[in-house]
Amino acid sequence: MGTAHDIWTAYRENAFGKYPKPFVAWLMVVEDAPKSRATVRDKSLHLPVFPEFLGASYLKRYDILCQRLVQEQLYTAASVIATPKEAITTGAYEDLSPLTSLKNFITSFAGHIAMEAASSAP
Predict the structure, then answer these.
(1) Contact, 78 vs 25, CB < 8 A?
(2) Helix (H) and strand (E) counts for the chain?
(3) CB atoms within 10 A of CB 27
(4) Does the CA dihedral 19-105-78-84 come out positive or negative?
(5) What DSSP element (H or E) covers 25?
(6) pLDDT tops 80 at residue 122
(7) Are 94 and 81 in contact (CB under 8 A)?
């Protein structure tokens, strides 16, 4: 998150020059394993745990994180996919939600590229 904030600050301050808005993305690949799907024990001594995190697995928490990274406009797109070790030869993976799907991520990136290409055309 700090990196995204730094990029947006640099963009605002024209550190990159006068260029169109950058595409800032976050992609997480998590092993699809029993431990990543298991409920995480919630223990917070000083602050209450948000309801959406109660009983949520690591995968669910990462999905919520990616959704919030985009919702808060820290990242243009964010995706989390789960893939088992055995998929190393097949490339199989699972999206966790439509908002954080790899398809949504790539579509957003493709749209950004198309916009840049169209604005750069003679």
Answers:
(1) yes
(2) 4, 3
(3) 16
(4) negative
(5) strand 25-31
(6) no
(7) yes
Task: For residue 105, give the nearest of 26, 17, 32, 5 by alpha carbon.
Answer: 26
Q: Which positions ≥6 away from 111 have C-beta within 8 Å?
A: none
Domain count, the chain: 1
**In this predicted model, what pLDDT tens digit does every residue of 13-65 receive, in sequence order?**
999 998 889 999 999 999 999 999 999 888 888 999 889 999 999 999 999 99
Domain holding 50, by residue range, is 2-120
What single-letter DSSP state applies at residue 13? T
Candidates 56, 96, 51, 57; CA nearest to 78 is: 96
